[in-house]
Design a protein that fits this description.
By secondary structure, the chain is mainly α. Helix content is about 65%, strand content about 0%. The protein is built from 10 helices and 2 strands. A two-stranded antiparallel ribbon has the order 1-2. The protein is globular and about 50 Å long.
Length: about 240
Amino acid sequence: MTPTLATLTPRQQLTAGRLPRRLVQLFVGLSLYGAAMAIFVRAGLGLDPWDVFHYGVAKHLGLDLGTAVILVSFPVLLLWIPLRQWPGLGTIANAIWIGVATNLALAVVPTAHGLPAQVVFLVAALVINALGGALYIGSQLGPGPRDGLMTGLHRRTGLSLRLVRTCLELTVLAVGWLLGGVVGVGTVLYAVAIGPLVQFFLPYSIVSLDDSTSRARAPRLRSAHPDPCPAAPRGQD
């Protein structure tokens, strides 16, 4: 039987079993996600909505992109408080490690020159992003800050996940564009392709938990960004 995502409290996430395997998978997934962000940047064909915002913040504050990702994560987490959301270990790891991984990858990934190379980079970034998101979601150690904001707003307002996600991503996309973030064909392709790609990888990435802590199951969900998360996970950011 295919494993499914469980609804767990932060404490249950740590006691649900197979923790070493899940921790390794979490950090592999977050590392891939950060690497994918760097490849999107080097492709030069547009970023996903949240990263358009991150790029704009980085540009205006004179920061590295990864540092901006970390900087934005914590105000987003503060928005969880009125939504009565509790972060898990994966939430905190997401807030910090994706930014670190992005900066490390930007230091070694070259800029793509010429349209064929840019397209290869863009497609590679999409696939790596989706795989990384599926791995981190499948570790079942908590949603990322941005995904938790989305699911928290959905739960508190009663609005559909699709509507909440769309409104959030259009807002950060518009603000990021005004701040000078990179919008392009890659932005559109990400919006269209990331959900199906994460959904493809997710069934192979969910770690089976102990029966005693996995009875309450969440429905199969589509991915969003970010930060990549089920719901949609971009987990993101």
